[in-house]
Write a structure and sequence with these properties.
The structure is a homotetramer of 403-residue chains. Chain A is of the alpha+beta class and 403 residues long. Chain A is built from twelve helices and nine strands. In chain A, the strands form three sheets. In chain A, strands 2-3-7-6 form a four-stranded antiparallel beta sheet, with no helix packed on it. In chain A, strands 1-4-5 form a three-stranded mixed beta sheet. In chain A, strands 8-9 form a two-stranded antiparallel sheet. The longest helix of chain A is centred in the middle third of the chain and has 37 residues, at 249-285. The radius of gyration of chain A is 21 Å and the shape is globular. At the A-D interface, helix 8, helix 9, helix 10 and helix 12 of A face helix 8, helix 9, helix 10 and helix 12 of D.
Chain lengths: 403, 403, 403, 403
């Protein structure tokens, strides 16, 4: 047992930290300003983003998330996690390093399960940060907390598949660079429960694909990325676009979600760290009732509890990453379910305290606290609500004592 | 002791409930649609609002908040509170009945402390719902949780006052009908601590008044109402615009805040009631893991806890209203401080559970849950953060046992 | 709606408060000392108790709990509740006024459902405070949270009933004056679910009744009262001892529990009030880090939250009492379930804060905080665990929206 | 970074686990029975304890806590922590392995700071488990959360010291084998704040030492160990009994508390693990409302939250141990303060859920849940209340951002 980061990790941490300090934080408001200067917040990508991406690529801080040596940095989950945390401190951070969801998960799916042709067509430009992609799984009509509820259909017709269904929360669908959806639906409703589903690649410009609207999150549009409600009506794609094969949807989803959850959690930990930092600075610069806010006992308690909750959430997430690396996603199932509950709830608490310490400024956009909060809140729902993960943890715990 | 509403209240409750059912809820999305059809969300008021206001006025459901018989409905706080709750169920509700903040508080100030001239010029059109107003107290540079921190100046110069200061969170300043700010500042920084401040009426079109920007709340712009950051630079108004007299700012603020807090709290209770109703309906219409969500024990616990917290918050708020009516604002100080902590926190919990029960739909604008949540969150800060109210409650409690 | 106590209640409050101040609090440690001086803590009743009882009787502060005018004070639930609160401030308080559980519930059952003979034999001496009684419902072998689980049998044999079963948590069974158990068991396991059970009077000296042991609560023996585990083996009583009739057990239990829950909750509210008072005094008399504990912001927050939670719990309990008085136990079902969750949890929080503020002294018996805590903790289980009451509240809430 | 226990640790874990399974758990009730058979619970040590100790010593499971190779097992904090956890699962566990507080801390003080003579006289018999000792620091008259409050005096008089003061919570003072107190008091009230205090060895049979009474904890007497209130009146000991030298009291306390806190926390983690195990077993064996309690969603949530909180608390405690081993107590200050808050609160929550799941049985002594709860509750106060540790964490956090 050893709680120190490796030298390799420390060196990456320094590089990413420097990059964030020098290039990312100072450009957050420029990014927002450029976005607002456009005709519409959806019409293009703020130019500063491409500059930042080029610079990160130059410095070798690119595709760090991808454990595959051929395509990415070849870092383990345990090595990438602390870097992911640093990127998550800024809402524009992950994209700068080509490490933002849902592209990371989509790239990993393509790298692990994609055919050579699929890799060439889609993985390459994604790895280069030229195009973006979305993931179309959740449906408005059913409780997606139970994935077997999915109703969309993928029906074979000759050497094509015909796709029908309404999806929403297809994040990234608003991005003008978004070219691809990974679509989940049922190829065979009569197969055993976990073999009914398949995943298929759908170019967004295919006939029958309509982005109805972009869904806001607590008032945030998340432009130009956004969360799309998309109709797929008799959409036809060649059968070569199926990933891995019919009935593999569930298996791919399981593989995809493990690392994705680590990433989500570590980004939230980064967001919470930054919030705590901002809280500490703010309360040392403001006075009320004749002393700095920092001398109020209640605020000190917020700080202590935040530090305590942060440390614990990070350790548990790193342990989950370690187990994924050493004994595999399946053996790490409990840990992954646990962090998916812990990290968003911890981040929400820390962010909420930071908001409260900032007074009304905290709920505005003068700080990124409110936006990060909204983001963290969705992560109590995205990739399964807390309740489903707790169910999973309890089931595994109870099974230890079953006769 | 008696826990039943009076016949008078019951009759009003029926009328307001019917009005909400028939006219308000069915037009919420129309209101939003009309707002979005405009050139800008700030450029005008959705026409449906005027229709609704006329109808409410016709039915005598107008200015119910004003205890003064001459100008308003003459209801006591205890009588108005349960009606205010009903209006708060919809974000567009209070305005329909000319009962929305900050106009209610401003009208009350004018009715109680205004000169005849001030009443004629400002109170009349406000009571008629022709114009709107804002309240300029909070400042960006200092912690407003301690009201003695206020830095703005109101300096006499002949028979004029010269006003200087930067204010923010002047809610309603974005409304094209907003004509008036009640401005709080120091007329005499050398006076005893609670006599330094005054309130003065500033027409928004006076030279030197500039609305710099509108502040968002968790991504919501709250257009066309909005929250303004306003610069007052050498703004000159006749000395007749001072309210009640120099040095009365604090006293007026105290008087203004009591009923205002009841209103805020009751609206939040209404919002929470509606959220619980929506939660109950949603979970009976969705299935996961082979049974309705309503049969999940955890969700039943949310429902029970919500009902429990709601009932308690309502009783405490009604008791605060009762004490204000019977022994006065000063004697009701503890109760008012308590409800200001209880109601927003209760509403946040109930709304959060309802959001969670709605899945991702809950964080979008397909329901009003997320918007109501953002609203409730600001009320842990507006009119004093929780921490200041808890301080107050503790101080009064400890004083019982001081030797 | 009116939140003031009636003059009648105020007058009783004054009398009970004076009595507590003059006679009860000053004798708490004497009671404990006399108990410890005995051969065994179970062998007798501290003489001070009889003195206090005589004095209370003299002053007409006797059997205040009983709404029946013939036998008791004839106060409504709403009138008795605030007096019950005062008695609950001391662990020896309720007995002094002949208002302690389970005798209160047992007396009420006898007054409402007992035959004349039963009243003469048992109700009279109970009302006089000459004997005590216990209530034998809970069983060790089954989850009593679901009352239909009860396994004990009451079988008719000629004009006798033969009783078999093991009961525990028969509170009061340790008292040397305890003469009677009200026993619940099944007379007809084949009847409809809520008509299988009956209640029967069993003199404790009947052959076949054995008190196996007294159960401690968090280390407290609660002597001389205590909680008995009792075996009933072929216990024979005349059939005249059945209460109301066969199959009425459930109905009686429902009737018995309503007022009993009000009493439990109000006593807990009293205990919490006293704890808050002791907390406030303690923190004003101790210093740490160069200032009184009372000046620590965190402790002020405890005080404020305690006051807030107390007020809400009291209002809800009073409303439950009011509803019982005005629309009956059945209509007050939700309120009764709610307070049964609220009051113990509130009391535990307030007591826990008071303990923490007292430092290590708080967990000892130098104050009654720890003992009151243990008592409150059992009330999250006794008369149904929190979870069952929440279930009930949720069920009623959901039913409002069932199609 | 590596989250696996070393082979050495795993081997010890197996041995301790086997020992607990075979010898400790099966004898818990025998220990209690033997204690109750004595004339008084304070008059002797249940014979089973000596048998268990002999057996543990034989198997080399003895003094595992002592990092010093000469006197103990020479394990690091990180190596001992998981073994300490296992021992903590039983209330009689730690003593069996000669690893129980406060002897462990006292032995460590003697091993690190004691003179050769002191070691010979006191350390040897303690290491052999022949005698026991107590630690007399806390005083009834002052808030011990601030250690500078201590009022006891240690005054030099020739080649003796004269000791005066009243101490309480001297744990272990009730044990008939207890021979020694380590006493903390002021040798020089005029010295700099952290050099006023000294520690001195006081044989309990010295004239002037009187154990006034034993303090209960939530009704538990903790016999034969117990918590003593001790008067020291003009107690004279040779000056050779001072530890390390005058003015070193604070420094020794700091050194003593670090490992002691790890031990307390790990024992609590063990207690919580056992509680969760018992909870899981119980709910699979009981039915209510037609299904096993284990199928109630709310109970599953308790299980999940317990597992989640346990894992996090353990990781943080192990990290604190690791930092103590690698960078020293001083650098590990934040981590030590954090676990002292986390572990007791976590254990209380898990134990409370287990109690609730056991119904009324949970508050009795049929399980060790209630006793473990009372124990955990005191640890929110012992060695500094939560609030002092949070203060410490906040101070260190804020200092990162001080200009």
């Amino acid at each position: 047992m050893n709680f120190d980061y490796s030298e390799k990790v420390k060196s990456f941490q320094e590089k990413v930290t420097s990059f964030m300090d020098e290039h990312v934080y100072p450009n957050e408001s420029l990014y927002e300003a450029q976005l607002n200067e456009q005709d519409s917040r959806w019409s293009g990508i703020p130019p500063i983003m491409d500059e930042l991406k080029s610079r990160a690529k130059e410095q070798g801080l690119w595709n760090l998330f991808l454990p595959d040596h051929t395509y990415g940095a070849g870092l383990t989950n345990l090595e990438y996690a602390p870097l992911c945390e640093l990127m998550g401190r800024s809402l524009i951070g992950p994209e700068v390093f080509n490490c933002s969801a849902p592209d990371t998960g989509n790239m990993e799916v393509l790298a692990r399960y994609g055919s050579d042709e699929q890799k060439k067509e889609w993985l390459r430009p994604l790895l280069n940060g030229e195009i973006r992609s979305c993931f179309s799984m959740t449906e408005p009509e059913v409780a997606s907390s139970d994935a077997t509820n999915i109703q969309s259909q993928i029906q074979r017709d000759g050497n094509e598949y015909v796709i029908n269904g309404r999806k929403w929360w297809s994040s990234g669908a608003g991005d003008p660079r978004c070219r691809l959806a990974i679509f989940m639906g049922k190829t065979n409703p009569d197969a055993p429960r976990h073999e009914q589903q398949s995943m298929i690649l759908v170019p967004l410009d295919t006939e029958g694909v309509t982005v109805n609207r972009m869904l806001p999150v607590f008032g945030y549009d998340h432009a130009p990325h956004g969360h799309g409600e998309i109709d797929f009506k008799n959409v036809r794609v060649p059968d070569s676009q199926i990933i891995w094969g019919e009935g593999k949807g569930f298996a791919i989803a399981q593989g995809r979600l493990g690392p994705g959850r680590i990433h989500h959690c570590m980004r939230l930990i980064g967001a919470a760290e930054r919030a705590l930092e901002e809280l500490c600075k703010r309360v040392q610069s403001r006075e009320a009732f004749h002393k700095p806010l920092a001398d109020q006992g209640v605020i000190r308690e917020w700080i202590a509890d935040s530090r305590i909750e942060l440390e614990q959430a990070r350790l548990l997430t790193l342990k989950a990453a370690y187990k994924m690396d050493t004994v595999g996603n399946k053996q790490a199932k409990t840990e992954i379910a646990m962090i998916k509950v812990v990290a968003p709830n911890m981040a929400l608490k820390v962010l909420d305290r930071a908001i409260q310490a900032h007074g009304a400024a905290g709920v505005s956009n003068d700080f990124t606290l409110a936006a990060q909060w909204a983001n963290a809140r969705t992560l109590r729902l995205a990739d399964g609500p807390d309740e489903v993960h707790r169910r999973q943890v309890a089931k595994l715990e109870l099974s230890k004592y079953k006769e």
